[in-house]
Amino acid sequence: MSILIALYIFTILYATGAAYFDVKTRKIPNEYNLAFFILALIIKIIMGISLGWGNLWVSLIGLLLGFTIFFPFFIFRLAGAGDVKLLAVAGLILGWKSFIWVFIFTSVIDALLVFINYFKIFYVIFAVPNKPLEEKINLFIDTVKLRRNQKNPYALSFAIGSLVFLIFYLYITSLESNFFLDYLKQRFLTDSVFV
After folding, report:
1. What are phi and psi of 170, to 5 degrees?
2. Cα 64–chain centre separation
3. 27 contacts 82 by C-beta, under 8 angstroms
4. Which is it for the CA torsion 171, 109, 13, 62, positive or negative?
5. Is this structure's pTM higher than 0.70?
6. What's the rounded Cα separation, in Å, for the pair 194 and 7?
7. Taken in order 156, 120, 72, 27, is the CA torsion positive or negative?
């Protein structure tokens, strides 16, 4: 197993625990984030000693990128502080290149979950028989207004996005060679998280 796949699995384990807390209590405990931060830092220092210090710099850039991407959402109360810390620690674990890919997959998954939630509300309200259309529309608008303040647990989206990306990575790296796949593997999906 390559080092990169091990880091993806470590990220999935971290995100799954965070998703459990996020779904259950709507908060990711600071102790949980801190424990994984320290563990990830120790792993990265050991990797730096044995494989070169470039890996640590890539990871520190990933940490900064993870924090920077989500901090504005926290400022505008669109995300919690635990989500910001989740992405920062995930950036540290993965490094900036892999983090960007996982973040893209997570964003798609999160958008899908939001769409499913609103579609479910839409379907339940408009499937009710014997109500005038205007009353159904008003009920839908009121429900959406109520739900606007209830954020989706982002850690759940991140856990699913990390898992989907790992499956994508394993699939892409197992395919036969062609120009596009060779370019993709060389530029973005290599085991060289140290560059």
Report:
1. -65, -35
2. 15
3. yes
4. positive
5. yes
6. 13
7. negative
Please give the DSSP secondary-structure letter assigned to residue 112: H
Tokens, residue 81: 């502080």
In the block, residue with structure tokens 């801190």: 34
DSSP state of 191: S
Q: Please name which of 2, 1, 5 lies closest in space to residue 93, comparing C-alpha atoms.
A: 5
What's the Rg (C-alpha) of the chain? 20
Q: Give Cβ neighbours of residue 21 (< 8 Å, ≥ 6 apart).
A: 27, 28, 29, 32, 82, 155
Cβ neighbours of residue 83 closer than 8 Å, sequence gap 6 or more: 22, 28, 70, 73, 74, 154, 155
Closest CA to 28 of 71, 75, 80: 80
Q: Decide: helix, strand or coil at residue 52.
A: coil
Asked if 191 and 3 count as a contact pair (C-beta separation under 8 A), the reply is yes
Q: How far is CA 129 from CA 118, 120, 144, 149, in A?
A: 19, 16, 20, 28
Pull the structure tokens for residue 144.
């959406």
Token output for 142: 């009121």
Q: Where are the beta strands (DSSP E) in the chain?
A: none
Instruction: Find tokens 């709507």 and name the residue.
Output: 26
Residue with tokens 């807390």: 21
Segment-wise mean pLDDT, segments of 10 residues, the chain, 195 residues = 81 94 91 94 86 83 92 87 93 90 92 82 71 75 66 87 89 69 64 43
SS3 53: coil
